[in-house]
Amino acid sequence: MRHNYDVIVIGCGGLGSAAAYWLAREIGSDVLAIEQFGLGHERGSSQDHSRIIRHSYHDPNYTVLAAPAYDLWAKVEAESGVQIVHKTGGLDLEMLGTTGPKDLSHCAATMAAHGIPYEELSAAEVMYRWPQFTLPDDARGLYQADSGLVDARKANAVHIALARLHGATVRDHLPVRALRSNGDAVEVETSEGVFTADHVVVAAGAWTNTLLGGLGITWPLTVTQEQVTYFATPHLREFAPDRFPVWIWRAPQGFYGFPVYGEVATKAGQDAGGEEVTAETRTFESNPRAHERLINFLESHIPRFLGPELYTKTCLYTMPPDRHFVIDAVPGHPRVTIAVDGGHAFKFATLIGRILSQLALRGQTEYPIDTFQANRAAITDPTFQPMFRNEAVVHRT
Ligand SMILES: Cc1cc2nc3c(=O)[nH]c(=O)nc-3n(C[C@H](O)[C@H](O)[C@H](O)COP(=O)(O)OP(=O)(O)OC[C@H]3O[C@@H](n4cnc5c(N)ncnc54)[C@H](O)[C@@H]3O)c2cc1C
Q: Which terminus of the chain is less hemmed in, N or C, by CB atoms within 10 Å?
């Protein structure tokens, strides 16, 4: 069995499978991608029918990446013949008077600065166009027509299939036990021996610190157990993707949801509403408190969205203290490139994969990623106060 490759990718979730694909397009059979569980497993962050994709970000560092992400998803769709992005339109909602760096005025400002069309709507205008919503008079909305969903499960499978088409070797059920870097190469230890590479890409999600440990590094990453619930609404036609947008409720307790897609059911969740866990201590059980918060919100604001619960699915966020991504070489280890997702990266997965491939092969990328450097204070300064978007993390007692 071959044990030396130009680049080894560790982790075949959303980001790692994308990196394997973009690397294989350039160097074909010199790529090995390794996954500890079976491909498509449900223990990480990436395996569900849908993730929101949007230009509407409060922070221009993400808005500027949205257009290239849409473009690259279109390329992957063209190459595979599989539709991955479904544009449903997207509504950001908040109460009038909401302030802070993540409010709607920041989303509007960043989109205006990048020439992205959007509409600002009163509560009455939202309810006229989408009578599915029941909003208080002092709510407001922002609509962006290109928002929609990425079919995460299909995206991962397509990236892996195309990586193989281009010559990559993909190995699942093969945990990496240790990662070591010396000046000339990187060693990847597994039960099938030590693999070596000129460069390693780490896309290990909630297991990031386990792998960084081999390099003598620990980052202040918080892993939370999040959940989404599918509701078998009887009002299917009202919530079909051509009639109902993806939506985000921007508030200290932020919620989001999808039209009927993937299951014959609507889907919604709370952003960063889960408890702090590790990849080992997490459960696959629904959190009843988070569930109740979601139901209360939906009963008040989108009552016909609800129906018998089809199922609740748990999933992990891995968040640096500032909730920005990390996309960089590991400090002191120029042959190891890493991505940490911050709990909001799927929309950019194929783009991040391309960026990782460029960093691994050329040490630089054409895309603006300065914000995501590993040597920023949020990663290096132990006194940096965590600021998770919308919701404080609830510590498990
Ligand atoms: C409930 C929920 C809702 C979300 N909604 C959105 C959304 O609407 N829009 C959006 O853009 N993003 C969203 N996200 C975030 C997005 O899904 C994640 O940012 C993304 O999936 C992260 O992918 P990843 O590849 O970093 O992690 P993962 O998918 O967890 O992949 C990491 C992989 O590495 C493997 N691995 C780890 N260690 C090893 C090892 N030692 N050896 C071999 N393999 C290893 C793991 O098994 C795993 O498969 C959401 C996340 C959750 C949980």
A: C
C-alpha 34 to ligand 1 mean position (Å):
15
Report pLDDT digits (tens) over 321-380.
999 999 999 999 999 999 999 999 999 999 999 999 999 999 999 999 999 999 999 999
Q: How far is the CA of 318 from the centre of ligand 1 (A)?
A: 8
Per residue in 144-161, pLDDT (tens digit) is: 999 999 999 999 999 999
- State in Å: Cα 246 to ligand 1 middle: 21
DSSP letter string, 35-87:
-SS-TT-SSSS--SS-EEE-S--SSHHHHHHHHHHHHHHHHHHHHH----EEE
Residue 117, classified by CB atoms within 10 Å of its CB into exposed (0-12), middle (13-18) or buried (19+), is exposed
C-beta separation of 279 from 223 below 8 A: yes
Q: Can you spell out the DSSP letters for 325-392?
A: -EEEEETTEEEEEEEE-TT--GGGHHHHHHHHHHHHHHS--SS--GGG-TTSHHHH-TTPPP--SSSP
pLDDT of res. 392: 35
| DSSP 8-state assignment for residue 249 | E
Share of the chain above pLDDT 70, in %: 97
Q: Report pLDDT for 98.
A: 85
Residue type, 304: R
Ligand 1 centroid from CA 15, angstroms: 7
Q: Extract the residue ranges of the chain whose pLDDT is less than 50.
A: 391-397
- Residues contacting ligand 1 via CB (< 6 Å): 10-16, 34-37, 44-46, 51-52, 175-176, 203-207, 211, 226, 228, 269, 315-317, 341, 343-347
